[in-house]
């Protein structure tokens, strides 16, 4: 549970969030998240770009960054992401640390640039710009609850592997668990039990798979 001092630190960013949205208008959304509660991390949201509400979980992109870097995670500024309904967002995430240097949350800005992207596409068709390789935006679901996040992680990993669960060998299942681990799935409370059900194995088997893959990474 996050302490009162840390909570006050997160809440001190609210005036900044409101200033940003007031400046950039309806295409802008600002969130403040408490990553100590990944299941329900958004403690503040202003704007409606992603359709989320207070209490929504963090995104799979943030989960992956936290899994790989922990308290050493770096701010992610000026990224381009694409929502499930096809809209393009310009996003920035600034992580918030307490006095001990521990990451306790983040302030995120999401700006809908879909209209600008469409205009740019039209312009590029009449210029040499279409000869350049476009930057592929990151897929980010901006789910409204943790079940959506978990389901997206499972389905995306299955799509990447292209092996149905019923045809998976033991090595396939280990690889499946490894991919989910790298995406931060095991930061979600109850994920071991859920993944065990998906793979039709025991919880202990999932722990064994994790031990194998993490040992391989270390060696």
From TrEMBL:
InterPro entries: DauR-like (IPR039446), DauR-like_HTH (IPR039445), PAS-assoc_C (IPR000700), YheO (IPR013559). It holds the Pfam family HTH_22. PROSITE patterns: PAC. It comes from the Bacteria. Residues 74-125 form the PAC domain. This is Transcriptional regulator. It comes from Cytobacillus depressus. The lineage of its organism: Bacteria, Bacillati, Bacillota, Bacilli, Bacillales.
């Amino acid at each position: 549970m996050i302490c009162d001092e840390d909570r006050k630190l997160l809440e001190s960013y609210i005036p900044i969030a409101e200033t940003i949205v007031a400046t950039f208008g309806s295409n802008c959304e600002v969130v403040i998240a408490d990553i100590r509660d990944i299941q329900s991390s958004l403690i503040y949201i202003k704007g409606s770009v992603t359709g989320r509400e207070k209490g929504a979980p963090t995104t799979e992109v943030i989960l992956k960054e936290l899994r790989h870097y922990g308290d050493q995670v770096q701010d992610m500024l000026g990224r381009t992401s694409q929502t499930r309904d096809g809209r393009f967002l310009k996003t920035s995430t600034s992580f918030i640390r307490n006095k001990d240097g521990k990451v306790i949350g983040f302030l995120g800005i999401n700006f809908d640039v879909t209209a600008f992207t469409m205009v740019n596409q039209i312009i590029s068709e009449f210029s040499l710009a279409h000869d350049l390789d476009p930057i592929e935006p990151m897929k980010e679901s901006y789910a409204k609850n943790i079940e959506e996040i978990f389901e997206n992680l499972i389905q995306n990993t299955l799509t990447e592997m292209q092996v149905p669960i019923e045809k998976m060998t033991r090595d396939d299942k280990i690889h499946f668990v490894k991919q989910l681990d790298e995406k931060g799935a095991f930061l979600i409370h109850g994920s071991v039990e859920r993944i065990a059900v998906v793979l039709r194995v025991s919880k202990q088997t999932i722990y064994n798979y994790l031990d194998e893959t993490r040992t391989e990474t270390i060696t």
